[in-house]
């Protein structure tokens, strides 16, 4: 099996394709044959070393978090998924590993892939989908401490999440 990994923190030049032995799924984990994977800011920030306080300094490190594929095996305690299921999900934060032939992930981080969604599109959903959900789920109607359309985040200032307003029918200065 092959995976994209790095042996030290740095830019894209530290990445290499390497042979690896995928681990058997542990309790409450699934082993997935990856059909598509998606990159996001988390992947390159980890590779650059911007998150080393959370990820540690052990190498080599696998890359990639978001994936879509087919379940190959399940660990003890897995009840929602079975071998052969088409799924999408996210690898564990510290282990990563979605840029590989196979990846293990916790069952709770993997869901069935909708039949009419391609593997490529499904792989693009996990991180951005959860981010969007978390942003919109924090909007509470009838909450006097927040203005409609804004979300308070623990990591940043309020963000606008309301739909864009329609443009005026008449342009200024058009008569």
From TrEMBL:
Signal peptide: none annotated. Pfam families: ADH_N. Residues 151-161 have a biased composition (Low complexity). Residues 144-175 are annotated as: Disordered. Gene3D superfamilies: Medium-chain alcohol dehydrogenases, catalytic domain. Coiled coil: none annotated. Residues 10-175 form the Enoyl reductase (ER) domain. InterPro entries: ADH-like_N, ER, GroES-like_sf, YIM1/Zinc_Alcohol_DH_Fams. It comes from the Bacteria. This is Enoyl reductase (ER) domain-containing protein. The lineage of its organism: Bacteria, Bacillati, Actinomycetota, Actinomycetes, Streptosporangiales.
